[in-house]
Amino acid sequence: MLSGGFLFLVGAGFNAFAQKVWMLIVGRMLLGFGIGCANQSAPIYVSEVAPYKYRGALNMMFQLAITIGIFVTNVLNYFFAKMKNGEGWHYSLGFAAVPAVMIVIGAIFLSDSLSSLIERGKDEKAKQELIKIRGTSDVEEEFKDLVEASQSSAAVNHSWATLLKRHYRPQFVMAIAIPFFQQLTGMNVITFYAPVLFRTIGFATFVSIFTVDKVGRRKLFLEGSAQMFICQIVITAAIASKFGVDGNPGTLPKWYAFLVVGFICIYVMGFAWSWGPLGWLVPSEIFPLEVRSAAQSINVSVMIFTFAIAQVFTSMLCHMKFGLFIFFAIFVLVMSCFIHKCLPETKGVPIEEMSVVWQNHSYWKKFVKSASEEAKAKVDNSC
After folding, report:
1. What domains can you pick out in the chain, each with its CATH number?
2. Nearest to 372 by CA among 154, 172, 170, 168
3. Cα gap 270→353, rounded to integer Å
4. Do the Cβ atoms of 313 and 374 come closer than 8 Å?
5. How far is CA 241 from the centre of its chain?
6. Which residue blocks in 50-113 are alpha helix, DSSP H?
7. Is the dihedral of CA 2, 56, 139, 358 positive or negative?
8. Per-residue pLDDT of the chain (383 residues; tens, 9 = 90+)
9. Which residues of the chain form beta strands (DSSP E)?
């Protein structure tokens, strides 16, 4: 987090004082590296230190912070765009230094995560931090789980190679599938091209913060998907009936405009309390310590698909017209089936005991348990 904050700060400086195009490019690259560091570390850190009963709500603060950041950025850009000297873009890009400073200062005062301390042999310090975080000295059982997880992790020399083994197939698939599907909800299209109004709807994230640890991850995923699917079908029908394939709607009545805008808002709210925050929460809590850094790196890297969607969206819109919404609706249906079939419920499960949910899952148990049996067989043979 500290490294990401510094990279973000330097990138903001390059962009704010840019005199040449290359300075903007370098600045944007540094900002990208900074965001990568933050996306890699922050969700994992929260999942590792949060009490398992409130892990979902606390981790979703990450998505809420992103939403607030988007809202504040758009408000500031509104005023910067009105600057008469044409220098507003310097201030717009330079203000990225504000969250950068916040990240740096915050990271300085944060202790290392408990798992990190134990892995470096600082068991006593980790225990004291655990007592401090939990507010009670009754932490023996949880501390024992952390130590056992660290010992298992220490036996793994190459986390990337280990992640590809059959035993970790569920985590590997989720590390790719969840962020991949998150990009194919169609939400990024609206984020890139819709007015500020639709971005503010992201405050619906509050709904998931208060419900995720009560109703569970799967139900929020499936409810949000159903909501988005229905809205995309309605929007498709509305646009097809008025715009057709020639893109000439004639005179649009006000009720029609309110209908389309209303369903887009409902669609965005569905994303804001399901695939938006859960896309960060679930990957950060399902990876075992020995492959956690590698798996989270893959999870964040798949986000590059956002760039691909941004590049092809206008071309797809020109060729597919209203069919573009059907395109994303089909993917929403596919990802709903994937969640229903492949994702176990992780609500209320301590992060060190997450392997149990895969061992008990109707599909994944054939991968996890078979690998466990192989490990047992190796031990028996060695004896």
Report:
1. 159-382 (1.20.1250.20)
2. 168
3. 30
4. no
5. 35
6. 55-59, 61-80, 88-94, 97-109
7. negative
8. 999 999 999 999 999 999 999 999 999 999 989 988 888 889 889 988 888 888 998 888 888 888 888 888 888 988 998 888 888 999 999 999 999 999 999 999 988 888 888 888 899 999 999 998 888 888 888 899 888 888 888 777 788 888 898 889 999 999 999 999 998 888 876 766 555 445 545 567 888 888 999 999 999 999 999 999 999 999 889 888 877 766 676 777 888 888 888 888 888 889 988 998 999 899 989 988 888 888 988 988 887 777 787 788 778 878 888 888 899 999 999 999 999 999 999 998 888 888 889 999 999 988 886 545 555 544 454 45
9. none
**3 state SS of 112:** coil
User: Residue 283's closest CA among 268, 297, 266, 264?
Assistant: 297
- Nearest to residue 347, comparing CAs of 163, 202, 217? 217
Nearest residue to 336 (alpha-carbon basis) of 278, 262, 286, 292: 278
Check: CB of residue 289 under 8 Å from CB of residue 145: no
122, amino acid identity = K
Amino acid letter at 173? V
**DSSP characters for 291-321?**
GHHHHHHHHHHGGGHHHHHHHHHHHHHHHHT
Run of H or E including 2: helix 2-16
Report residue 9 as tokens.
């700060």
> The dihedral of CA 216, 219, 222, 226: what is its sign?
negative
**Cβ(27)–Cβ(93) under 8 Å?**
yes
Tokens of 44: 């994992």
Q: What is the CA radius of gyration of the chain?
A: 23
pTM value surpassing 0.85: no
Q: Which two tokens stand for residue 258?
A: 């309110």
CA 141, CA 124: separation in Å to the nearest integer? 15
Token pair of 272 as six digits: 């804001």
| Longest CA–CA separation in the chain, Å | 82
